[in-house]
Every structure is written in structure tokens, then in C-alpha cells.
Design goal:
The chain contains four helices and no strands. The chain is mainly α. It has one domain. Helix 1 runs antiparallel to helix 3. The longest helix has 22 residues. The protein starts with a helix and ends with a helix. The mean pLDDT is 89.
């Protein structure tokens, strides 16, 4: 697998961590907090802490996206090198 595809997979994995309903920092926690705030109840999670943890993931995604801009997009990059050597 090329470095480019590996980085794309990292982004997919990190994005899933934000969206997953089983993740400790998933979107569902914000939805639950929103629901609680609309009904005037005390928030079930520390929104500041949750936001900070999610921001770390978003920063990682942004950094990988910037790195992708510098990598060749050729999916067969590794295979071509092996063919040339062989």
C-alpha cells in the first residue's frame, strides 16, 4: 500500500473515531448534551473536555491532509519500484 493510501486510511480512521457511536469522543455525546440542554437538564458530559479531545483529532486530520498534498497519488507507486528492481 502506498504512503498516500496509508495516510488516507488514517484520515478515515480518525473521522470514524469522531463519528462512531461507540467512541468516547463520538458525535453522539454532543447530541446527548444538546438534547439535555434543550430540556434544561444538567449536561451528562464535560463539553469543554469533549471539545478539546475532539479538536486534537481534527488537528491530526488537518495535518495529515496537508501531508497528503506533498505525497504522490500514484496507487501503484510501490509496485512500480518492485518491478523496476526485479
Amino acid at each position: 500500500m502506498s504512503k498516500y493510501l496509508e495516510k488516507q486510511q488514517e484520515i478515515i480512521n480518525l473521522t470514524a473515531k469522531l463519528a462512531s457511536d461507540t467512541s468516547s469522543i463520538g458525535d453522539w455525546k454532543f447530541s446527548k448534551c444538546y438534547e439535555y440542554s434543550l430540556t434544561g437538564r444538567e449536561l451528562p458530559y464535560d463539553v469543554e473536555d469533549l471539545h478539546a479531545k475532539r479538536q486534537v483529532i481534527r488537528d491530526q486530520i488537518n495535518a495529515i491532509q496537508e501531508e497528503l498534498k506533498t505525497l504522490p497519488q500514484d496507487e501503484d507507486e510501490g509496485e512500480d519500484e518492485e518491478e523496476q528492481l526485479g
